[in-house]
Design brief:
Elements lengths: L5 H5 L16 E5 L3 H12 L4 E5 L3 H20 L5 H9 L1 E4 L2 H5 L4 E4 L5 H14 L5 E4 L6 H7 L7 E6 L8 E6 L5 H13 L3 E5 L7 H17 L5 H11 L6 H8 L1 H15 L8 H8 L15
Parallel strand pairs: 1-2, 1-4, 2-3, 4-5, 5-6, 7-8
Antiparallel strand pairs: 6-7
Helix pairs in contact: 2-3, 3-4, 6-7, 9-11, 9-12, 12-13
Amino acid sequence: MFRLTTARIASVRGFSTSASLSKKVDSLSVIGAGQMGLGIALVAANKAGLQVNLIDANQGALDKGLKFMDKLLEKDVGKGRLTSDEAQAVRGRVTGHTNLQSAVADVDMIIEAVPEIPKLKFDIFRDLNEWTQKDTILATNTSSISITKIAAAAGAGAPRVISAHFMNPVPVQKGVEIITGLQTSPETLATTLEVVKRMGKIPSISKDSPGFLANRILMPYINEAIITLETGVGEKEDIDNILKNGCAMPMGPLALADFIGLDTCLAIMRVLYEDTGDSKYRPSVLLNKYVDAGWLGKKSGKGFYDY
C-alpha cells in the first residue's frame, strides 16, 4: 500500500516539509467531459466521496458523458459492486456545468482533462489563476506537456499547479503519474498525493521531463511498432500477436494505439521529438497519415483495425 510521508515528498526536488502539508479537499471540478474527464469525475465521486463539478463548454458532450456515467453505474449495480442506493448517491455527487468560471469559483481542487493542445491548456490555467480561490489546487491530466510551462501560464498561481496524469480507463487502471513543475509547492504535492490515494489509486512521482514516466517508455514502443508495419517487416496481426503471445503484453501495440487514439499518440510523439531533439522520437510517417485521414482508432471507428 502506498503511504504518504513527508520524507517521500521531501525527496522530490529537495522540498522541505512540515508535519502535515496537505489541505482538506471536499470538492473537485473536472474540466472536460470526455473519456478521461468523465472517468476522473466518476472515481472521485465514488471512491473519494467528493462533490464534483463536471465541466464542458459543449452541452452535447456533457450530456453524452453524464449518460455514459449512468451506464457505468448501472453496470456496477448489475455486477454487485454497488447497491442501487450507493449508485444514486454517487451520481448525486456529480453535477454538470457549461460555464467554467462559475463552476471553479468555490472548489478545493481542479483537474483539467481537455485535449493535448498546449495553447488551450495555457489559456485555461491563465483563467483559473483569476477565477479560483487562492489555495485551490490546479491539476492537469496532461500526458506530455511540460508542467513548468503550464504553471508559468498560471502566473501567481504557479505554486498551485501540478499534474495528476490518470491512466485510461480511469475506473480500471490504478496508476497515476504525479508530476511537479519547478514552481509546484510542497503543499500542492502533498494534497494531490492524498486525494489520489483517497481515489484508490497508486501514485508514481515523476520529474517534469518530456513524456514523464509512462509515455517516455510507452509511446516509442508504440511508434516503433507502427514503423515496423510501415516498413513491411510484419502485418498488423503478426505484430500484435507476437507481443501478446511472446512478450506477455495484455494488448498488442497497434490495438493499444487504437484504444488510446492515434491523434493522442501523435501529439505525444511530437512533444517528445520537439522537446528532446532526439531522432529516435520522430513520429512514424504512417501515424501522421492515419491522423490526416481521420483514422484515429476506436473513437472514430477506424484505425489500424475497424470498429
